[in-house]
Amino acid sequence: MTAADSTPPECVPSPHAARTSHPAASDLRRGADSICLKEVTLARGGRIVLSEISLAIPQGSFVGVLGANGAGKTTLFHALLGLEPTMRGSLSINGQPVRRGNRSVGYMPQMRKLTGGQFTGWSMVASALHGQRWGLPWYGRAARAAVEAALAAVDAQSLAHRPVGTLSGGERQRLLLAQTLLDNPSVLLLDEPLASLDPARMRETVARIHALARARGMTVLMSAHDINPLLGLMDHVLYLARGRALLGTVEQVITTEALTALYGAPVDVVRAGGRVFVVAEGGGSVLQEHDCGGCGVHA
Ligand SMILES: Nc1ncnc2c1ncn2[C@@H]1O[C@H](COP(=O)(O)OP(=O)(O)OP(=O)(O)O)[C@@H](O)[C@H]1O
């Protein structure tokens, strides 16, 4: 994999992937490509969002997906979930074309509104089992075991009997992460899972997801508006801007030269105090989601 986005990659399929439509991460060969895009163009509302994107993400990679508001992070996730049609090109996961309802892919959507706050943490996690919804009265033994295992994986057993409405943002994030693990996915797509967490919780959440992914061999794509909580844990950055994508290591992608070329306008990458800042000409933040005056210019 290189930081260039022009040459279509030759995706390396896992020899085990074709045996089942829902391979566990441990069944997939490390070194094979988990996610593969070939000359993909995606549009929303009649407007092209991502154009001619080609990239290959190796099995087991932990990838930070960065880009300003509207850069196409959610659109890309929806395309990988088979929820968004491609205008051109092909997308595959574990060597198979993307399809809706693929249980190999765990997804945490953006803008998760809290509904059913009176239900317990256990019920909230269980509600995601095979598309079930809140408060079903009975689950079989296998379903209950899956919920227990998912809660244990995120260290949330103590939240199982708490009403969700009484939980902190970070505790709810853990339950949402548990939901994504129910089907033992080999790929996790997490759309801004750090939103609304304080810096300490952000770091803790990234470390938890990273450890889980490493232990299970899962490929993780995590979108974010601040690169800093991901530093040191990401294997790769996928940076989206102007309909284009740049994939590579932090050292390859988060540079003044690479990002200036991607944006087609002067961008400065400043490193200070172990943190990284991506700053547009004139001093404004390139990535920061909210407009908060002098609150910083984090990438
Ligand atoms: N349902 C929709 N109909 C029309 N256009 C849409 C729709 N959803 C998104 N878009 C547009 O598609 C583009 C990409 O949006 P997308 O949500 O993928 O960006 P994003 O990188 O996830 O942004 P953010 O960081 O704000 O979540 C934006 O210009 C957006 O306005």
TrEMBL record:
One of its GO terms (molecular function) is ATP hydrolysis activity. Residues 1-28 are annotated as: Disordered. Residues 35-267 form the ABC transporter domain. InterPro entries: AAA+_ATPase, ABC_transporter-like_ATP-bd, ABC_transporter-like_CS, Metal_Ion_Import_ABC, P-loop_NTPase. It holds the Pfam family ABC_tran. One of its GO terms (biological process) is zinc ion transport. Keywords: ATP-binding, Ion transport, Nucleotide-binding, Transport, Zinc, Zinc transport. Belongs to the ABC transporter superfamily. This is ABC transporter ATP-binding protein. It comes from Acetobacter orleanensis.
